[in-house]
Amino acid sequence: MRIAIVGAGALGLYYGALLQRGGNDVRFLLRRDYDAIMAGGLRVFSTGGDFHLARVAGFRRPEEIGEVDLVVVGLKAFVNDRYAELVAPLVGRNTLILTLQNGLGNEEGLAALFGPDRIFGGVAFLCSNRGVPGEVHHLGAGRILLGALCSEKMAEAEMIATVFRSAGIDCSAVSDLRKARWEKLVWNIPFNGICALTGRTVADVLSSESGSRLARNLMAEVIAAANAQGLSEPLAADFAARMITFSAGLGPYRPSMMIDREEGRPLELEAIFAIPLERGAMKGVPMPCVETLAGLLGLAVAVAP
Amino acid sequence: MRIAIVGAGALGLYYGALLQRGGNDVRFLLRRDYDAIMAGGLRVFSTGGDFHLARVAGFRRPEEIGEVDLVVVGLKAFVNDRYAELVAPLVGRNTLILTLQNGLGNEEGLAALFGPDRIFGGVAFLCSNRGVPGEVHHLGAGRILLGALCSEKMAEAEMIATVFRSAGIDCSAVSDLRKARWEKLVWNIPFNGICALTGRTVADVLSSESGSRLARNLMAEVIAAANAQGLSEPLAADFAARMITFSAGLGPYRPSMMIDREEGRPLELEAIFAIPLERGAMKGVPMPCVETLAGLLGLAVAVAP
After folding, report:
1. pLDDT above 90 as % of chain B
2. Together in a domain, A187 and A283
3. Which of A156, B110, B144, B204 is 20 to 30 A from residue A57's alpha carbon, by CA?
4. To which H or E segment does residue B211 belong?
5. What is the total count of domains within chain B?
6. Ketopantoate reductase N-terminal domain location, by residue (chains A, B) (predicted)?
C-alpha cells in the first residue's frame, strides 16, 4: 500500500517506520528530520526491538509525494489550519485519510475539506518521543483503535487495521470512533494537562495521593461528559481505574503536551480541552476541574499582554 | 506602645515602620535585613509618600527584645511551627498577640501556646514587596480588618485598631474575625494560586475572559464555603464582583505566593488552601476548582521523588 505520513513527529515516524518495514511503500513528509533521514536513514529505538531503515522516501513538499492510497496524519492539532496545504496534494479519487491526532475535531476538519466518506480516525496509546533528527524512541505501548467517521465505512476501517496489523502494530477497528476518542481523552486531559502545567512526569503525578486524586477527579468528569454524548455504549465503570493502572506502568513518562511546553511550542488546547469542554457543556455536564486546568494552561502559555 | 514585629517581611516592615513613625516603641525581629537596617535604617517607598527611619530597633533573637505590649506576627504561615521559639520570649502577663498572617489556622496555633484570650487576628489588604535589604515597597492598598479570637475581647481589638489608626493605618475592628478571614481568602485563593502556578501577574489573569472566569469560579466556591461556616452574616452577593474590581486596580501585581515560588521558598498551601478546603468539606460544600488548583500547586512545588 502506498502510504504518506504527514506530521512526522514521534508518532508519525514510529508508525511510518513499522509500516515501511512491513512492506508498504511509505512516503514521509519531513521538515526537521529531512537532512538527517536522507543522509543516514531512520533509526527506531523500541522496547519491541531496535531497527534501522537505511533508505527512506522523504520529501519536503507534499506535491513531490503525489497521490497515495492512505494518508496518515500525525500533525499537532494546532496546525490543523494547514490541512489543505499539506494533505490535498496527496488525495486522489480513492485516497483514504486516517488521522491519529489527539483530541476532538480532527476528523471533522478533514471531512470539511475532503468529504466525510474517506475520513478515518484512530487513537494511539503510544509512548514515544523524538530523539535527535533521524531517530525516534518508542518507550512502550502503541495500540491503535481506529474507526470510520461514517459508520457505513466499517469495511474500509477493517482494511486499514489489517494493513497496520500486518506491519506488527497492535491495531483494531472499532465501530464507535467517538467512543475511542473520548476514551483517549480520559488519559490525555489529566496527564497532558497536569504534566504540562506542573513540569512533573506521569510517575511524579501518581506518586502522591493528592496527585492521584487530582487525576481521578479529572477522569471522572471526562467520563461523565463522554457518557452524555450518546455513545454506542457507555465507558465502563472501571475505566478510570484501568487508566490509572496503565499510567502507573508508564513510569516517568513525559506526555507530548509537557514536551511541547518545554520546547516552546503551542499546546493542543483546542483539541484536547476546548472542544471536549464545549461538548460537555452542550450536554449540561459540569466539568469544573477540567475547566480549571484548561484555564490555568491557557494563562500559563499566553503571550504576556 | 511597645510593639514587637515578628516576621519582618514586606508586611511586617511596612506596618512596623508606620507604627514607629506614629510614635510607638517598635522592635523588629530581623533576619535577612538585620545588617542593612542597623547600618542604614529602614527606607519605605510608598504610594502614600516615601520615608526613612534612620534609627530602628532591630534584633536577631526574640530574647533580646523581651516582653512587649503587642506582638505583631507577620511570619509566613509555613513556619508556624516556630511560634514557640519566636513569640514566647516576647509574651508577658498582659501581652496581646496580633497575627496578620495569611489563611486559616494561625490564631488557633497561637492560642494553643499562649491561651485564646490574648489572641487577635487581622487580614491586611496590602500590596507590598520587599526590596533590597533595608527597603520595603508599598505598592497600594493597606487596609486592615482585625478582630479578637474570643468575642468578649472586642474592646481590646478596638484598642489595637486605634493604635494602628493613630499611626496612619486604615484599620477597623470587626466583630467577626472569621468572616474577615474568609473574605481575604476570596482574594488569596484565586490570585495567590493562579499567579504562583502560571507565573502571571494579577493584571495578566484579568486581561482575558478565561482568566477572569477562572478567578470568578474560584471565588464563588470560596464564598459558598464561607457562607456555610455560620458566620455572623453571609458574604454579600456582590463580594466577588467587588474583589474583581479591586484586583483590576492592582495592575501587574505579583502576589506573595508567586514571589515565594519564584524565590524557591515553600508556599503557604496549608493555611491558604488545605485548611479552607477542609472547612468546606466539613460543611459539605464541594470546591472542585479550588481542589484542582491546590492539587496542581502541590505537584508543582513537590520535591521530585
Report:
1. 91
2. yes
3. A156
4. helix B209-226
5. 2
6. 3-148
Count of C-beta atoms within a 10 Å radius of residue A23: 11
How confident is the model over B79-90, as pLDDT tens digits?
A: 999 999 999 999
Give A288→chain B minimum CA distance, Å.
6
When computed from its CA atoms, the radius of gyration of chain A, rounded to whole angstroms, is 19
Q: Does A217 touch chain B (CB under 8 A)?
A: yes
**CB B200 to CB A298 under 8 A?**
no
Does any CB of chain A come closer than 8 Å to the CB of residue B198?
yes
Tell me whether residues B200 and A295 touch, CB distance under 8 A.
no
Q: Do B288 and A214 touch (CB under 8 A)?
A: no
Q: Are residues B13 and B145 in the same domain?
A: yes
- What separation in angstroms does the CA of B83 have from each of A121, B71, B100? 60, 11, 14
Final residue of a structural domain among B147, B175, B203? B175
Which residues of B are catalytically annotated? 184
Indicate the angle between helix axes B288-301 and A288-301, nearest 10 degrees.
Answer: 50
Going through A100-218 in order, the beta strands assigned E by DSSP cover 119-130, 135-148, 171-173
Minimal-distance CA residue of chain B relative to A303: B204
Chain B, 286-305: which have a CB under 8 Å from a chain A CB?
288-289, 291-296, 298-300, 302, 304-305
Domain membership of residue A305 (yes or no) is no
Is residue A112 domain-shared with residue A148, that is, in the same domain? yes
Which domain-ending residue is among A175, A206, A223? A175
CA contacts within 13 A on the Cβ side of A50: 7
- The answer to whether residue A201 sits within a structural domain is yes
Q: Is residue A158 domain-shared with residue A245, that is, in the same domain?
A: no
Q: Which of A197, A211, A289 sits opposite B288 (nearest CB)?
A: A289
Range of the domain at B193: 179-301
Helix residue ranges per DSSP H, A54-142: 62-65, 83-87, 106-114
Q: Which residues pair with A73 in a beta bridge?
A: A6, A99
Same domain, A124 and A171: yes
- Chain B residue numbers with beta carbons less than 8 Å from the beta carbon of A294 are 210
pLDDT at A305: 43
Question: What band does B303 get if pLDDT is binned at 50, 70 and 90?
Answer: low
Residue of chain A whose Cα is closest to the Cα of B198: A300
Q: For A10-66, how does the pLDDT look when each residue is reduced to its tens digit (9 = 90+)?
A: 999 999 999 999 999 999 999 999 999 999 999 999 999 999 999 999 999 999 999
The β-bridge partners of A26 are A3
Q: How far apart are CA A131 and CA B260, in angstroms?
A: 35
